[in-house]
Amino acid sequence: MSGRRDPETPDVFRTPIGQVFVRTHFGEAPALDADAWTLTVDGLVEHPLELDLSALLALPQTDLTAVHECFGNPLNPDVPTRAVANLEWRGVPLAAVLALAAPTAGALHVRLEGADTGSYAGESGVAYVKDLPLEQAREAVLLAHRMNGEPLPREHGFPVRAVVPGMFGTNGVKWLSRITLVAERPEHFFTTQLYTRVVPGESEPVPVREIDVSSKLLTPRDGAHVPAGPCDIAGRAWSSSEVTSVEVSVDGGEWRPAELEPRGDQPAWQRFALVHDLTPGEHLVRARATDAVGRVQPLAGARNHVHEIRLVAGAENE
Ligand SMILES: Nc1nc2c(c(=O)[nH]1)N[C@H]1C(S)=C(S)[C@@H](COP(=O)(O)O)O[C@H]1N2
Ligand SMILES: [Mo]
Questions:
Q1: In this predicted structure, what is the pLDDT of residue 315?
Q2: Looking at 154, 181, 207, which one is the last position of a domain?
Q3: Within a domain: residue 2?
Q4: How many domains does the chain have?
Q5: What is the distance in A from the centroid of ligand 2 to the CA of 86?
Q6: Pocket test for ligand 1, best of 4, 24, 178 (most atoms within 8 A of CB)
Q7: Could you report the per-residue pLDDT of 138-166, keeping only the tens digit for each?
Q8: Environment of ion ligand 2 (residues, CB < 5 A)
Q9: Which of 89, 179, 194, 244 lies at 20 to 30 Å from 127 by C-alpha?
Q10: CA of 137: how far to CAs of 40, 169, 191, 250, 255, in Å?
Q11: Does the beta carbon of 130 lie inside 6 Å of ligand 1?
């Protein structure tokens, strides 16, 4: 994918904007003018709308802290990318806009379109489009205009993007320009062709929506040289439900439960930590999370398989 930035994930609760990954299918992010921007709401609604930014901001607003994760390359759905962040958003719930537009009885899905167009995976002249069932969208989607207390940076969707807590980043349409209420799932390159997958244990492909249970080791860094002896190992874990345990295994040894922060009332990530005594030499550290619905990170072969890092312990680096 072009238009990509993947900085290291820092081990802090709220990811600073400069360290958030960027994913843009068509390369350069569009530079939209906030004064000229409008959001069209059309399709199966009693009152079609064309809201400018001040009309949108006059609606009730809410804050949300949520984990933000890229699904990865839709052409290689089983390869982990571990592009993840935890962000604070402010915006207008989609429900407030829908209350004004009044979807008709036949409206069952919401189609979201961004202002960017271009070429991707051999397809040219396409827009970025996503869809969600109306009831799910009404409950979850935030039309965000601030990120970590600042106006959205251009590459993250200025002036307004969708944020869908608990779902993969791909659903959060940036540079949002149009919301259309429709009766059936819209056919589109980015809705029904790309970003569909067969979830382990199922047989039918489904759209890439709810995030998987996952974890990432962040302290120490992969490849770090550390003193031999007790080592503080820590990272973050997340899922579409609360993560209920994280276990850590060193050099293929037993899975030991790490200390795990509760999730609290926001769909944010959770810190885990454990102290392990490292003998001098090279070590392989792995982390495995389990969530409240009993999903466990697979050991291999999946986009969310257990994360592993290598550490070198030795007296000479103390
Ligand atoms: N309009 C538009 N929205 C988009 C994309 C895009 O290319 N165009 N990429 C999606 C993908 S795959 C992800 S993971 C997130 C990334 O959001 P970020 O770049 O703000 O981290 O935006 C999503 N929204
Ligand atoms: Mo993504």
A1: 67
A2: 207
A3: no
A4: 2
A5: 15
A6: 24
A7: 999 999 999 999 999 999 999 999 999 99
A8: 23, 70, 169-170
A9: 89
A10: 16, 14, 15, 42, 38
A11: no
